[in-house]
Please model this.
Amino acid sequence: MAEGGFAIHPTDQFVVRKLFCSDDHATAVDECTTGITWYDITNVTLWLALAAVAVILLMVYGTRRRATIPGRSQSVAEMIYGFVHNMIEEVTGHEGVKYFPYVMTLFLFILFANLLGLIPMSFTNTAQLGITVTLALLVFLGVTLIGIVRKGPAFLGMFWITSAPLALRPILAVIEIISYFVRPVSHSIRLAGNLMAGHAVMKVFAGFASMAVISPVAVGAVTAIYGLELLVAVVQAYVFTILTCVYLKDAVGDAHH
Amino acid sequence: MATEATDAGHAAVEHASSGGLPQLDVSTFPNQIFWLLVTLVVIYFVLSRVALPRVGGVLAARKSAITSDLAAAEELKQKALDAEKAYNEALASARTEAAKIVTRAKAEIQGDLDAAIAKADVEISARAAESAKRLDEIQAGAAEAVTEVAKDTAKELVAAFGGKADARSVNAAVAAKLKG
Model:
């Protein structure tokens, strides 16, 4: 970057690179970011593993005493348990509670991936489309399969809105089908987009801090945005989870719109 | 960027890292998807086998402990109420008993008193009768003495006036006088 000016590379933080790899600077190609195979240990792997470790620490190590009067970590674990359990029971009804472990997995994973991504120099998995699209597709395919298995052909009834006038029903059916298939798109892009935007903006402001005149403002802005991002990290985990419950309701709940 | 012509062959590979979003680099997707699935499976199994049953068990145990404690408290409260009731009953019966005893004692005392009064009355009336009898005797004695004295005095008076008193007629006259 011989042009000088700000050394701001807000998207560099999202680059997937191999760990245990050294770049041969003699070539223009960065060997660590190219030719990544599915089994390579990358920064994605590292931060996914850390998220899993964090989940296990909280939910297994934190509850190891099984105390009737809980300590701090056990209280947090119980609170999250109750929170997600209530959410799934309220949204999908009693039938959906069967899928509680899966919804809990999603919530805890996204929550900890979001929060770990806020550590400076870390890598934010939930800002990666590859990750969020996979998560959203798992929900989409899972819900569709559960719906077909549980309801059979009646599952398609959710596209045929019997409360609407007969003439409108085909048009509504088309709209409903489109909206059904758009779900995984919005579901994944909402999460990745929120995380990516926040992290990129923070990087940009951090870059501005290298200019003495505006650095106080930039540092203040980074602090403020960091606070906002903490909120976003929790809220987006919640949003992803509650949308999963809403979609699950179509597959297990009574068909009423 | 335009440095190495030697690496021109590799330059084509260096697509997403030099421009555009790294997230849109589809070549890293298999890696992300694979490791994500591994992570999710690990978390899922740890949660569904260990963590969730444990937390659910703790919550259920706490709920049942609270329920049983409340039931025990309810039972103890009931016991306390029963005890209070029994106490009140005992108190009331003791009061009744005491009142009965008082009544009986009063009746006994009254009976004794009545008997004593009756006995005293009898004694008083006996003594009074005796006194009256003695008074009568004294009165009778006194009247006889007066008669004797009057007879003797009349005889003496007759003798003093020089008459020869016939004792029998004097006595009759005095007796007549005394009667009249």
